[in-house]
Structures are given as C-alpha cells and as structure tokens.
Write a structure and sequence with these properties.
It contains 5 helices and 8 strands; from the N terminus they run H-E-E-E-E-E-H-H-E-H-E-H-E. By secondary structure, it is an alpha+beta fold. The protein has an 8-stranded mixed β-sheet with strand order 3-2-1-8-4-5-6-7, sandwiched between helices. Strand 2 (48-53) and strand 3 form a beta hairpin. The chain starts with a helix and ends with a strand. Residues 2-25 have low confidence and may be disordered.
C-alpha cells in the first residue's frame, strides 16, 4: 500500500473519531440539559451563553472569556477560560467593582478533569488532586490556590468590551451588568455550567 493511501486512511480515521467524539459530547450535553431544571451552556467561540430550563431555552446572553481565547485552561496565569462541566459554588453581590461589576458567580474550577491533567503534568501533587476531587464530589468550591489557577467565575464590568464581544478577562466569563443581574436571579448554588470551545 502506498504511503499516500495510508495517510488518507489515517486522516479518515482521525476525522471519524473526532466526529464521533463531538457527537457523543453533544448527546451528553443534550441529556444534561433535559435532566436538570436549570443548565447554563457557554459557547466560547461564538460568545454565546444560553440558559436552559427543563430542556427549553429560556434566555440567551452575549458572553466574553479570557484574553487567551484559544484552548482550555491549563495553569494559573494563562488567561484562558476553562472548558468542561462545572457548577456554581458562590453568589456574591458587589458594589460596582471596577473590574467585576455588580455581581459574582463562582465556578467549580478546577474540576477532576483539570486535576487529572495537573497530576500528569506535575503541576499539582496527589493531595491537591484528592482535595479537588473531594470538593467537586461534595459540591463545594475546590482549592483555588494551586498551580492550576482559581477564582474562575462569571462577572460583569468592562461593558464596552463585552458589548463588542472582545475577550478581555483573565479567564473568567463576563456579561454586561444588566444580563448578569438577570442570570444571578435565575441560577443557584449547584447550577451546572457547561463551557465548550
């Protein structure tokens, strides 16, 4: 068999696997949306946040993410927004913070997937890994002070940039303050937040 034919077969197999993975992820998200009362889905590449209630789209917002918008968060300071399945760990009212706006919704980053990657890349130790996994299982905020980074959430601020869909955060998700006020009323502790590329 010629090298060109082998490369074409390999390329086809890789494409087939990618399509299969995308379809599987899409089915998993569809099941999650239908099984939970409230689910927030963020599509980073198109700056869209959709809130679903009992499987039906309830609201759609413009959202921006980290200035380093390509790829999943890897470590502290990379200015990337994490991708995966998280939940709301914190709800705070702020007094028109110059950077965060009027509200804060904390997310459960790092999750077990990021912790596993952190162990494999020697960014965290086994005890930190266990603490992250345990916190996620207990639906509480995981440790925020590891090399994986932390304090990832949904906030307001910098409405001019958000309105223009310019990714400006250090890894968080940002909404316009009026949209954040509405989201804040809709979600609660434990509400799933799925972030995809």
């Amino acid at each position: 068999m010629a090298l060109r034919q082998i490369l074409m077969i390999v390329a086809f197999c890789v494409l087939f696997l990618k399509v299969g993975c995308v379809e599987a992820a899409s089915l998993e998200m569809h099941d999650l949306i239908k099984q939970r009362d409230m689910v927030v889905v963020v599509e980073k590449s198109i700056n869209k946040m959709t809130v679903f209630y009992q499987g039906t789209e309830l609201k759609r917002f413009t959202v921006v993410s980290g200035v380093n918008s390509q790829g999943d968060k890897q470590r502290q300071g990379d200015n990337r927004t994490p991708e995966g399945r998280f939940f709301i760990t914190d709800k705070e009212r702020l007094n028109d913070h110059p950077y965060l706006g009027r509200k804060w919704l904390g997310l459960s980053y790092p999750d077990p997937v990021h912790a596993q990657r952190g162990i494999e890349n020697n960014l965290i130790n086994i005890n930190q890994y266990r603490e992250i996994v345990r916190a996620n299982e207990q639906k509480i905020q995981p440790p925020q002070n590891t090399a994986l980074g932390g304090w990832i959430g949904i906030h307001g601020g910098r409405e001019d940039l958000t309105k223009e869909r310019i990714n400006w955060t250090e890894g968080c998700l940002a909404l316009q303050d009026s949209d954040l006020e509405e989201l804040y009323r809709l979600v609660d502790y434990g509400t799933p937040v799925v972030i995809v590329a």
